[in-house]
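Per-record layout

source: Xylanimonas cellulosilytica
name: ThuA-like domain-containing protein
length: 245
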Amino acid sequence: MWRRFGQMDGGGLYRQGGVMSERPSIVVLSGRGRHEDPWHDHAATSHALANVLAPVGDVVVRSTLPGVFDLDGVGLLVLNLGRPVPGYVEAQIDGPPEGWERQVDGLVGWARDGGSVLAVHQTALAVPGSDAFGEVLGGRWVEGVSGHPEIGAMRLTLASGTHPVTDRLGGVDAFDERYCGLRVAPTSQVLGWVHDDDGEPHPALWTTQAHGGRTVYSALGHDARSYESPSHQELLVRAVRWLVA
């Protein structure tokens, strides 16, 4: 795993073994197979995420194929995953569930060992039934409780002065969905809210370190239009800088 190491010209170095770099290694995991769904274009949003994060790290995008959760040397893991289409997992199209369970266990272990995770949007629905994965995320979509109004212009209201990710940023304006009714762990620190059509606030951005690493979850990112927002881009860059600090 890449770790912060020393100072250089006011910045820092990252080290894996004897290899030094001024930039962290960032892997965007793009949902495919049992980690995709029919409502999200994972390829487009993962590409958009990679473009936004390129100024702050060395970014690669990987599809969630068997073996993709080998995280040796990864400084930041970006999760852009979804909930599988009903019947896909049962058909074992991409292998038996036991193999995938071991891979998810490896991801959870990596995160608990100090790994940094940025999770977006539909990742709150990913890997259903795994409490350990939910612990790493710091919150979850709850079937029958969570939902969202029609996609459109929206605002994410941010807590100011409480965390480096949001301090003095004010808010995020984007074309996106407003996830409402998410279940947030009591150990997570909520940093942003969306409002439903009745004006009620709902947590949509938080951080957690309770599992042993650092995670930022943002409910934004339904499609590529969201990542065109300058304020959304700024939020993501701030999140990455905090996660790898």
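summary: The chain has one domain: 3-142+205-243. The two ends are 14 Å apart (CA to CA).
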